[in-house]
UniProtKB/TrEMBL annotation:
Pathway: Metabolic intermediate biosynthesis; chorismate biosynthesis; chorismate from D-erythrose 4-phosphate and phosphoenolpyruvate: step 6/7. The keyword Transferase applies. Phosphoenolpyruvate binds at K23, G95, R123, Q170, R347, R391. The keyword Transferase applies. This is 3-phosphoshikimate 1-carboxyvinyltransferase. SUPFAM superfamilies: EPT/RTPC-like. 3-phosphoshikimate binds at K23, S24, R28, S168, Q170, D316, K343. Keywords: Amino-acid biosynthesis, Aromatic amino acid biosynthesis, Cytoplasm, Transferase. It comes from Terrilactibacillus laevilacticus. It catalyses: 3-phosphoshikimate + phosphoenolpyruvate = 5-O-(1-carboxyvinyl)-3-phosphoshikimate + phosphate. HAMAP family: EPSP_synth (MF_00210).
Length: 431
């Protein structure tokens, strides 16, 4: 385990930076490249541990992938190009890898076994298994098909109609990957709109999906064609620098080429409600994904309420929003966020517990948090713990911008899951 001390000494964040590639889009570019026919060239791929696990799994499944350190080149041979792995597929800490590959491999004609780290072994997989079983899939897990290890006995599936119990891009994407290999039309209905990177990526590779509101129809079987992919910066990673700029006096920071997908900009909507000074410029599209440069300046903020359909758009940003709320005038209420309990950690408990150690006025609820902001009250330093969760680790690191003493983050190596260059970039931005 690695402990890292973060102490910005209230130094402003300034200049122009670029954050790593979007994690969700990076995963999907590897997956679709592997199942497409022909060559896919990927630039800007996030080289964090999660995406590298996805890459390693496809190599085990017989896909020809070359990596020159800058560009990923995949020589795909369609769905039939996937071969049974001789070894267990280890997904590390990546929930996206295991859940999407469960859907993909459930329709292949071979046997697969998944394992992961301690966190993955505690995260529920039945939410993926149930709809796949409804399609005729054969998947087996520990404790009544709920937990890893998971075995997948691939076989032909049949189309179905399925209503998701929660808005989840992972559940939706797993079913889409299975449906693409199935004869007939599979229909999905979400209770609210979740991230749509899979739908956009599918179309970029020449696939087809009908979307009407929160209803999706996928007709299979489908064949995809390899293409060139440029991965934009991850707004969930940019969020830490956005918040750092908003809460540190004197800051003015521009983050270049960030993905601003409409299903991912809940953070920006919340910040606008709180009075943040944020500007988007140089707006364009990369592979059906909207991209922009984001400039943020120190702002005086006010509390707000975050709930309902907005939650799926910012579920990964809630820990850093909680930190931001400690510096906003008034109360911030976060609710309808039960999904936080089944992330890498129970993010409600860990966010509340660790920020409380630093002097934040915050308490947890059954489905979220209540934060009383005190803009004139700095946080204190001390030892805190990431619990192996990259987003908790980065939230606590940014708390060091406000603290009177260093914030020492235990298990800070977890940050490398999505942002290997985080510490270096933070130091470079501090004026």
């Amino acid at each position: 385990m690695v402990d890292i001390s973060f102490f910005g000494n209230h130094r402003a964040l300034k200049g122009t930076i670029t954050v790593p590639g979007d994690k969700s889009i990076s995963h999907r570019s590897l997956i679709f490249g592997a199942i497409a026919n022909g060559t896919t060239v990927i630039k800007g791929l996030l080289r964090g541990n999660d995406c590298l696990c996805t890459l390693a799994c496809f190599k085990q499944l017989g896909v020809d992938i070359q990596d020159d350190g800058d560009t990923i080149t995949i020589h795909g041979n369609g769905f039939d190009g996937l071969k049974e792995s001789e070894r267990i597929l280890d997904v590390g800490n990546s929930g996206t890898t295991i859940r999407l590959l469960m859907g993909l491999l459930s329709a292949r004609s071979f046997y697969s076994v998944f394992i992961g780290d301690d966190s993955i072994h505690r995260r529920p997989m039945d939410r993926i298994i149930k709809p796949l079983e409804q399609m005729g899939g054969r998947l087996h897990g520990r404790k009544n098909n709920r937990y890893v290890p998971i075995t997948v006995v691939g076989q032909p599936l049949h189309p179905t109609e399925y209503t998701l119990p929660v808005a989840s891009a992972q559940i939706k994407s797993a079913i889409i990957l299975a449906a693409m290999q199935t004869n007939g039309v599979t229909k999905l209905i979400e209770p609210a709109k979740s991230r749509d990177h899979t739908e956009r990526m599918l179309k970029a590779f020449g696939g087809h999906i009908e979307v009407e509101g929160t209803t999706y129809a996928v007709k299979g079987p489908q064949n995809l064609t390899g293409t060139a992919i440029q991965v934009p910066g991850d707004i969930s990673s940019a969020a830490f620098f956005i918040v750092g700029g908003l809460i540190t006096p004197g800051s003015e920071l521009t983050i270049q080429s960030v993905g601003v997908n409409p299903t991912r900009i809940g953070l920006l909507k919340v910040l606008e409600d709180m009075g943040a000074d944020i500007t988007l410029s140089n707006e364009r599209e990369w592979n059906n994904e909207p991209v922009a440069d984001i400039t943020v300046r120190y702002s005086k903020l006010k509390g707000t309420t975050i709930s309902g359909d907005l939650i799926p758009q910012l579920i990964d940003e809630i820990p850093i929003i909680a930190l931001l709320a400690t510096q906003a005038d008034g109360e911030t209420v976060i609710k309808d966020a039960e999904e936080l309990k089944v992330k890498e950690t129970n993010r409600i408990d860990t966010t509340v517990g660790e920020l409380s150690k630093l002097g934040a006025d915050i308490r947890g609820t059954d489905d979220g948090m209540l934060i009383h902001g005190h803009p004139s009250k700095p946080l204190k330093g001390g030892h805190v713990h990431s619990y192996g969760d990259h987003r908790i680790g980065m939230t606590l690191a940014i708390a060091g911008q406000l603290s009177t003493e260093p914030v020492i983050v235990e298990e800070a190596e977890a940050i490398s899951v999505s942002f290997p260059s985080f510490e270096t970039l933070l130091k470079q931005s501090q004026s």
